[in-house]
Amino acid sequence: MRLLLFISDLSIGGAQRQLTLLAGGLKKRGVDVRVASLQRQGAFLGTLEELGIEVHGLGGSSAMRTPQVAHALTQLVRTTRTDVVYSLLPAANVLSSILRVTAPGCRLVWGMRSAELPLARFTGLSRTAYRLERALSFVPDLIISNSRRGRRDALAQGYPSEKMYVVRNGFDTEQFRPDSGAGRALRSFWGVPDEALLIGKIARVAPKKNHGSFIKAAARLAHKHPEVYFVAVGEGPEAAIAELKQLAYSNGLGERMIWAGRRDDMPSVMNACDIVTLTSVAEGFPNAIAEAMACGVPCVASDAGDTAELIAETGHVFAPMDTEGLVAAWEQLIDPMVRSNLGAAARQRIVEHFSVASLVDQTLKALDKA
User: Fold this and answer.
1) pLDDT tier at 270 (50, 70, 90 boundaries)?
2) C-beta contacts of 130-139 below 8 A and 24+ residues apart
3) Contact in structure between 85 and 106 (CB atoms under 8 Å)
4) I need a surface site. Which of 4, 11, 234, 254 has the fewest CB within 10 A?
5) Which one, of 88, 80, 70, 87, lies nearest residue 105 by Cα?
């Protein structure tokens, strides 16, 4: 099989990390795999090159260059005699649709990474991409969702049921593993006291990630437990971050709310936290939660996407937007022994059910159906 993985960019993101893990795993299995992106740059470019995987830029940087990108993609598929193109995320899925006309002998697979999306909160281009994806869903030979809830939502929107398949994300449990030394070093850098309990929110700043609820719940917990600190890790629009900082300040969090911005040392970030929290109103399969679990960190998360099934009995799940429910869940993890036991169970769950090997196995099984 000659396989091309196609994504809009190689910047920091869950889909990009999964593509990189999948590409490396497939190459180890002997699959002739390449990667294409609109531009040959981004945080994961170096990792892919270290894995010995060809990465092709298609010369695109905006919607205005769509014809050039479509032509470059077609030429790449033809010259490499690609058998299967597996695209990820709406923009790449929509662009890859042209191959049905320009490279009709190539099988086309789409990857969907989200569920329960509130499209009204998205910008114009993102909203358009999702709507075009839905309108063109009859084009690919197969559509792979990374969550059961994502598949369910897609079917409710009219996606063809006979083409929908679920492949859960996989995680590198050697990279993401318990490492107390790395965690302590990062806590010291952030100025977190040794005796403090640190709760992390690891997500880009975007409407669906619902940082506001995290801050409001943090303020309530901080009032009752002065030993608790909080950290937000992730980048986003400056104006949105400034608004969140003001919300934290007005709720009295002060220095107990740390704004870490973008971090590339995610295993250290996870190990620095005593609890990792998700407050999203919409998700597919949350990578940050699984990565924290792989590091032996218990999680408290909103019931979005497949989160509840991922965490199972190793943490706590609350209803989205339920601030009181979040505070109550955190309070159940104040006891360090409880956290230790749940953290060990969380890592074991990722090792047994969500490995990179499982991701590769299930993907190959799905591609055979295309």
Assistant:
1) very high
2) 130/90, 132/90, 132/94, 133/90, 133/93, 133/94, 134/158, 134/159, 136/93, 136/94, 136/97, 137/110, 137/163, 139/97, 139/100, 139/108
3) yes
4) 254
5) 80
192 pLDDT above the threshold of 70? yes
Whether 180-353 and 2-170+355-367 are alike in CATH topology: the answer is yes
- In the block, residue with structure tokens 């897609």: 154
The two structure tokens encoding residue 156: 């409710």
As given in the structure block, the two tokens for residue 53 are 């995987």
CATH 1.20.210.10 fits 2-170+355-367, yes or no: no
pLDDT of residue 40: 94
Number of H helices, E strands in the chain: 16, 13
The 10 Å Cβ neighbour count of residue 121 is 13
**Helix (H) or strand (E) segment spanning residue 150:** helix 148-156
Helix axes 238-250, 211-224, angle to 10 degrees: 20
pLDDT digits (tens, 9 = 90+) for 288-326: 999 999 999 999 999 998 999 999 999 999 999 999 999
Q: pTM here?
A: 0.87
